[in-house]
Each structure stands twice: as C-alpha cells, then as structure tokens.
Amino acid sequence: MGTNKGGKARSLPGELLAVSMDMHCVVLTGKNHHRIAENIDSMDDEVRENYIKGVRSYIKQLKNYANKFKDEEFKSLINELSKFTEKYIEDTLYYEELDDKNRMEAKVYLNESEVRLTERSNALDKAVIALNKKDPAGTGSLQINL
Fold it and tell me: 121: which residues sit within 8 A by CB, 6+ positions away?
C-alpha cells in the first residue's frame, strides 16, 4: 500500500483533495499570469498610442517645412518616411490585435477550464463521500496504492 511523507497510507479522499488543490493552483497561476500580461499590454498600448501621435505630428511638421522651403528632395524624403512609418504602424497594430485576441481566448479557456475541472472535482468528491458512508471506519475501500 502506498504511503504519504509521514508514512501513513494514502487515502482516496486525501489524493482527490491533493489533485483538486493542484488543479486549482495551476488554473489560478495561469489566471494570474494572464492578469499581469493584460496590465503590461495596457501599458504597452498607452506607450504605442503616444508614439503614434508623436511621430505623426513630427512628420506633419516636417511636411510643412518641406512645403514652406520648397525643397523637393526633402519633401520626397519626408514622404518616404511617412509611408514607411504608416506601414510600420499598420503592421504593429495588426500584430497587437492578434495578441489581444489570443490573450482573450486564453482567458476564456482558463475560465471555462476552471469551471469544468471544479465540476469534475465536485463529482468525485461526492462519490468519495458516498463511498465513505459505506466504510466510515476507513477499513480499506478508500485506501489506495500509488
């Protein structure tokens, strides 16, 4: 018969409790990491929004200078910079959107998994309680070898 660290025989209720606690620990750790990722993402979103506003403003100012001084070479350079920057912003926002969707899917999965695993754990607990009623002295039916 298997024993725990204290040398006592392991019981089915004890093992079910250990599995349930481990399961909840994994789910809660995943949810905590997700919460932190959401906080980091919101801070990253703010930094990106400020960057986009700033770079667009500076490019607009540079375009005005190019028009004011009628420097075609400078104007061409600014237009290329503007196109490059807008493409970068478009790509960045595309990947940010994918990241946000992925994070939301992970959140839904974690929440649904927690509910399913809790329901399974509750069903097993009820089954063990019913078995324990048949063998209240713990004479063996609930002892397990692991």
Answer: 16, 19, 20, 23
Q: Measure Cα distances from 45 to 14, 18, 59, 92 in Å.
A: 46, 40, 21, 11
Task: Print the SS3 string covering the chain.
Answer: CCECCCCCECEHHHHHHHHHHHHHHHHHHHHHHHHHHHHHHHHHHHHHHHHHHHHHHHHHHHHHHHHHHCCHHHHHHHHHHHHHHHHHHHHHHHHHHHHHHHHHHHHHHHHHHHHHHHHHHHHHHHHHHHHHHHCCCCCCCCECCC
Q: Indicate whether 14 pLDDT > 80.
A: no
**Least confident among 72-81, 110-119, 123-132:** 123-132
Q: Which residues contact 11 (CB under 8 A, 6 or more apart)?
A: 138, 142, 143, 144
- Share the mean pLDDT of the chain: 85
Tokens coding 88:
């970068």
